[in-house]
Amino acid sequence: MAVSFTVDGQVVRVEGLHPTTTLLRWLRESGRVGTKEGCAEGDCGACTVVVAHDGRWRAVNSCLIPLPSLHGRAVLTVEGLARGDRAHPVQEAMVEALGSQCGYCTPGFVMTLFEGAHRTDLDQPWKLDDQLCGNLCRCTGYRPIRDALQQVAGTCPDDGLAAPATDEDALREDGEGGAWFAPTRVSEATAWLAEHPEARVIAGATDLGLDITQKHARFASLLSVDRLAELRGIEVAAGMATIGAATTLVELEDWSAEGLPVLHRMLRFFGARQIKHRATIGGNLCNASPIGDLAPVVLALGGAMELVSASGARTVSADDFFVAYRRTALQPGELLARVRLPIPPAATKLGAYKVSRRRELDISAVSAAFQVRVAEDAVTEARLAYGGMAATPIRARAAEALLVGRPWTEETVRAAADSLRESFQPLTDHRASAEYRHRVARNLLLGFFAETREQPFIALPDRPTATVQEVG
Ligand SMILES: Cc1cc2nc3c(=O)[nH]c(=O)nc-3n(C[C@H](O)[C@H](O)[C@H](O)COP(=O)(O)OP(=O)(O)OC[C@H]3O[C@@H](n4cnc5c(N)ncnc54)[C@H](O)[C@@H]3O)c2cc1C
Ligand code: FES
Ligand code: FES
């Protein structure tokens, strides 16, 4: 396998490694040990570097990036920031704010601060928290580090480190260690998949990457979708948003703040900035996790999936997409190409909730998304979708039936909420007990009623989970 990219401005060419070799492993084995390994699963941020291919530096977890996905791109590590003896302004800010003690987490924080320094949209306190939440520090506490970020955010220092824009070439490597194909056209991707039915599709690798780093999986053939421009981006026409499956969650977050705020609200508490720069909507839906956060939103909105293969395209409703535990309606040789989300009319009551042990960077114990339409004092449509309550993301059909045709009052909502216990048999696991999940599922619906009684939608309360937990 031969992959070339730049690291700290130097062109490197790497040959002979297995395609699942991660950027972190390669950096450290090639002597660039400033970048640290903590968890090797995207949780601690010690391994943060920035990567550019579209003229913007983006903070990512190097422990989850397979080396071939960097082909033709640029990587900047903590070792490339200083100019001679002169520390970079973000490094100086960390020192001045006393943001480093043992220093193990510091290189990762510095790279997250570097991205923050070059962002011009960190204009609200929650955005500073969001920028930092993918980095853990056990020594100093976060306030000094947050102070350092606040000092540098949006300053765009003249550091001679402009992010390059690069051409995205296809990459095809059929080495002995394993095959990696990253085409630039969907037709090439589906033709290759037809010839390699055993291949795994890989997008941002924030899910599949854990199989590599934790389970030591060595996939024989991988089809990367992250150079398929046809599968990226969002188009809105005639009340329908069509989202390319390889669209990243940061791209989705940027658009949905105005375009579909209910989705934005769920994305606010999804992973961390480093994860959302790589993770895609397609990867989140195709992994079919029962606690994946986007599935309830897609189900509540009445979304549909466009699937493509060498023999054509078909559309499957979100209701029919999740068929069993971690299984979807995708057949061998098929790719998820696009997700279609109807944009609800303005008066629709919408809510999205995530309940987890910790607010930032945690997997849901229970998540939910609701869409309710009311006309002439009666509910005309109700779509109540949950994660964490069954083997798949699932709608609460019995509760929906108890709402439709009835007034949107506390009495009817309580009756629907009480019915949830009969509809679900959730698991007890390390995230939550079955009883806790039952109670939370009920409270989320009651909380949704309380939130949307007077107004259709609350965009981004600072602590949405606390709001819902207070409802009895
Ligand atoms: C630290 C951390 C925090 C996380 N936090 C959250 C969270 O808060 N909420 C949450 O829901 N998830 C979370 N995740 C899980 C993961 O980040 C998401 O599910 C993410 O959206 C996966 O997208 P990806 O592009 O990285 O998928 P990948 O890992 O590349 O792929 C995931 C699966 O989807 C398949 N696939 C990908 N794209 C396609 C396609 N176009 N067609 C067919 N199959 C495809 C792959 O074969 C694979 O089976 C977290 C993960 C980590 C490591
Ligand atoms: S080593 Fe912890 S996020 Fe990468
Ligand atoms: S300074 Fe020690 S873990 Fe952050």
The distinct bound ligands, ions and cofactors come out as: flavin-adenine dinucleotide, FE2/S2 (inorganic) cluster
Structural class: alpha+beta
Give the biggest beta sheet: 5 strands, mixed
CATH class bucket of the domain at 232-469: Alpha Beta
| Shape annotation | globular
Q: What fraction of residues sit in β-strands?
A: 15-25%
Distance between the termini: 58 Å
Compute the number of strand runs: 20
How large, in whole angstroms, is the Cα Rg?
23 Å
Describe this structure in words.
- By secondary structure, the protein is α+β, with helices and mostly antiparallel strands.
- The chain has a domain of 238 residues: Uridine Diphospho-n-acetylenolpyruvylglucosamine Reductase, domain 3.
- Strands 2-1-5-3-4 form a 5-stranded mixed beta sheet. The protein has a 5-stranded antiparallel beta sheet with strand order 10-11-16-12-13. The chain has a 4-stranded mixed beta sheet with strand order 6-7-9-8, covered by helices on one side.
- A hairpin with a 2-residue loop joins β1 and β2.
- The C terminus is likely disordered.
- Bound molecules: flavin-adenine dinucleotide and FE2/S2 (inorganic) cluster (2 copies).
- The site of flavin-adenine dinucleotide has 32 residues, from β8, α7, α10, α11 and β16.
